[in-house]
Design a protein that fits this description.
Elements (H helix, E strand, L loop, with lengths): L9 E5 L3 H12 L3 E6 L10 E4 L2 E4 L8 H9 L11 E3 L4 E5 L4 E4 L3 H11 L3 H24 L12 H6 L9 H6 L5 H8 L18 H9 L2 E3 L3 H14 L3 E4 L3 E7 L2 E6 L2 E5 L1 E4 L3 H8 L9 H5 L6 E10 L8 E5 L4 H8 L10 E4 L13 E10 L7 H19 L7 E7 L1 H5 L33 E3 L10 H22 L12
Parallel strand pairs: 1-2, 1-13, 2-9, 6-15, 13-19
Antiparallel strand pairs: 3-4, 5-8, 6-7, 10-11, 11-12, 14-17, 14-18, 15-16, 16-17
InterPro entries: Amino_oxidase, Carotenoid/retinoid_OxRdtase, FAD/NAD-bd_sf
EC number: 1.-.-.-
Protein name: Phytoene desaturase family protein
């Protein structure tokens, strides 16, 4: 950041999810006077925490992937992640129970991964090496050219440098087709495709470019931040405070209006003016609930026609006794999971034979549960927009707990001492259309320039960050999204001769 004697521009960030926290840090580092308004008492957005009777549950993300992206974020401000939280690399990465009675643990080391693949299919070890070499290249090119480099305009995508860098990459076609060209065994294909859940897609509607997620999983590794993902939220928020950001929790924004020289931000407690506003809230919610109709960038039909990432049926369970059968991360999968994905993206129904994820952070961190107990989170991806009245949720709860007992040998039903839940209704309360738990799915038609822009065209001075914008879904992606939104603010201020005109985001 360059030194300046200019008065700072005022920027209000609406929402304190990862995108909002990131944007606040970058803008404060560039010299802006930044205030974050968060309607809840906790920071973190969907990455919240439940604390009850000695149990601590991360309510949202629980996988810490792409550590290089977090290191890059902290380095932008001359800091390191380990100053704010500690990481432990998990080994195994996770365990899988298939519903035919088979199970496997996926090791953190390459030779262990090779041995696992070879045990299912002759030649699969070498095929894994070949696949991961391509995934590594896709990751390097994808991150540098499609993620870290913001390309908001179509002309940015015909850059000769980009075309040269992307030559030879498999960009189109489905992930399932791409993976099937390397391994035949359906279980191995599932191991290479399950990470698409982190992007809110399926193997059948996500472009093959996202093979890069296998590099994230099997090459870069799976980590756990001590204290859970909430520790990461707290660390980033601390960086923001050190940079001068002000946080106001319990402050719900109720309206945004354009003024001659800025924007008027209305809250339940009053009004304030700001030169610019960055919304870390779904654009559909902002347009529907905060903006006058003349300031909408998209019509209702646009939002109705989007493909949303799944919602989630969540159980937060405090369990008596230990659970050695389960790893920190455990997947329970039918051998044919196509029906579950069809229930999400095609028929919009509750899954009859669900695939799901079980998180037991107390296997790694004894601070998240009382002695002699385990903290368990069960996540079942379900279709956004489902009706989830209490009777339906109760019935599905029994189905999932029965399924878990049958296929893992772990019967929790008589051991639960604390229980909370969330589903479509709770995610809709965050303003996510149809109660999606993640945002816009990463289909081909919703990748890159097809995602909503960081700038609002209809409301000058309004910007967006988060999982509905580029580069997309997930903690690392929304961190980068915040950087992109802040860069757009700085560029516009420079073009308009505003107070940020002589400033720039850190480029070292």
């Amino acid at each position: 950041m360059q030194d300046t004697t200019l008065d700072s521009e005022s920027v209000v960030v609406v929402g304190a999810g990862f995108g909002g926290l990131s944007a606040a840090c970058h803008l404060a580092d560039a010299g802006a006077d930044v205030t974050v308004l968060e309607r809840r008492e906790q920071l973190g957005g969907v990455a919240g925490r439940i604390e009850r009777d000695g149990f601590r549950f991360d309510t949202g993300p629980s996988w810490y992937l792409m550590p290089d992206t977090f290191e890059r974020f902290f380095a932008r401000f001359g800091r390191r992640p380990e100053t704010y939280y500690s990481l432990e690399r998990l080994d195994p990465n996770y365990r899988v129970f298939w519903k035919d009675g088979d199970s496997a643990s996926v090791p953190a080391d390459r030779q262990g991964q090779r041995d696992l693949f070879e045990s299912y299919e002759t030649g699969a070890a070498d095929a894994l090496d070949e696949y991961l070499a391509g995934a590594s290249e896709a990751y390097e090119v994808g991150m540098e050219e499609f993620v870290y480099e913001d390309r908001p305009r179509w002309r940015d995508w015909v850059d000769p440098d980009l075309l040269r860098a992307a030559r030879g990459l498999t960009l189109l076609g489905s992930m399932d087709d791409h993976v099937s060209a390397h391994v035949d065994h359906p279980k191995l294909r599932q191991l290479l495709e399950y990470t698409l859940v982190f992007l809110g897609g399926s193997p059948y509607n996500t472009p093959a470019l996202y093979s890069l997620m296998s590099h994230v999983d099997l090459n870069l590794g799976v980590y756990y931040p001590e204290g859970g993902v909430r520790a990461v939220v707290d660390g980033i928020a601390q960086v923001a405070r050190e940079l001068g950001v002000t946080f106001e929790t319990g402050s719900e924004v109720t309206g945004l209006e354009r003024l001659p020289d800025g924007l008027l931000v209305s809250t339940a407690d009053g009004e304030r003016e700001a030169d610019r506003v960055v919304a870390n809230a779904p654009p559909a919610h902002v347009e529907r609930d905060l903006l006058p109709p003349s300031r909408h960038d998209h019509g209702t039909d646009y939002w109705n026609d989007r493909t949303y990432a799944p919602s989630a049926f969540m159980l937060y369970l405090g369990v008596e006794g230990e659970l050695p059968e389960l790893e920190h991360h455990t997947l329970v999968l039918p051998t044919d999971w196509r029906g579950h994905f069809e229930s999400i993206f095609e028929t919009s129904a509750w899954p009859e034979d669900p695939s799901y994820y079980v998180n037991v952070p107390s296997r790694t961190d004894d601070t998240v549960a009382p002695d002699g107990h385990e903290t368990v989170v069960v996540l079942v991806p379900v279709a956004p927009g489902l009706d989830d009245p209490p009777t339906v949720r109760a019935r599905f709860r029994e189905q999932v707990l029965d399924d878990l007992a049958e296929h893992t040998g772990v019967d929790l039903r008589d051991r639960i001492v604390v229980e909370e839940s969330a589903c479509v209704t709770e995610f809709a309360e965050f303003g996510y259309p149809q109660g999606s738990a993640l945002g816009l799915a990463h289909t081909l038609r919703q990748t890159g320039p097809f995602r909503p822009d960081h700038r609002s065209d209809a409301m000058p001075g309004l910007y967006y960050t988060g999982s509905f914008t580029a580069p997309g879904i997930g903690m690392p992606m929304t961190l980068v999204s915040g950087e992109h939104a802040a860069q757009a603010v700085v560029e516009d201020a420079a073009n308009e001769g505003g107070a940020l005109a002589s400033l720039g985001l850190r480029s070292d």
